[in-house]
Amino acid sequence: MDTLHLAKHQGLGNDFLVALLSDREQADLERRVGDLAGLARETCDRRKGIGADGLILAAGMNPTQPSLAPDADESASATPAKRVGMKLYNSDGSSAEVSGNGLACLANEVARTFVAGMEFGGRTEARGDILVLTVDTADGARRVTLSAEFAAAENGSVEPIDPLAEVHMPHVAHGPDISAALDGQIRRALGSVQRETGDVGNPHLVINAGRPVNTHDTADLGAAFEAHFPRGINVEFIWRIERENSDSADSSSIGMSVWERGAGLTQACGTGAVTAAVRAQSWGLVSPGAETLVEMPGGKATVSTDEVDGHPILSVWVEHLGNHVWPLDAPSLDA
Questions:
Q1: Domains in the chain, ordered, with CATH?
Q2: pTM of the entire predicted model
Q3: Spatial distance between the Cα atoms of 314 and 278, rounded to a whole number of angstroms
């Protein structure tokens, strides 16, 4: 294995490099590279590498493809279900348990691979679920449903159009404690604001800033607040969005800026959006139980509630940005 094939995807400006590997290829990669953290730092470097917020290595891909031929039987036309394992690395090389936008990007790449070999009659299919993906993460299994239209590309392959990923998340649990020192620092910087931690497989500190927080303050305060947690934490600053030409405040929208553990200032955070929406509901910033729109620098995500089990669902549009081939004998940036 001399090269690694990587697909770059983004959701809300949160971008990831995705490698789909068989179990044998995963083992070969680990033997060949050894230092996967170093590989993440190199490939994610925005000056000397490809550039991304994180690297996703997914193993367990099955090469078989379904068919969309007119005479395909009913079982072949059912929504395909697949299962893969995921290793996630931040751009600084640290391991991460889970990422909402990362899961969405992974599902989009699996779907692209899955539908590329379909027989296709040249028509554009109506939007529908094209993949249900179970991902085994460091924090357990996550389910992602991807819906899209799809049509034949110029080269004859099949491409999903405007894919929308619905990431099924666990209930937001309590996160690590806020120390007295951190509590005092938050008060000095922002006043007596609502703040609480949460955990959806990775830890978050959500702060109701009461106003938009610019990128400079998000970076400065986010780094300072994260320093109080030995294992790191994602820091989200939120505020209720007041709509112009409206007699009352919008009851379903919040703004959010984020400082991510292992990546720094980013355009968005999917697990952060889920944690922030749940905390915003408990604080009365938005209507409890309603679909919450979370507006981040990279775009808008919605957080809704599963009618069956009550778990939060993150919905995010995803986009394939391009394909890259990374030589595994590339010189190390750490040298």
A1: 3-67+77-169+318-327 (3.10.310.10), 180-307 (3.10.310.10)
A2: 0.86
A3: 12
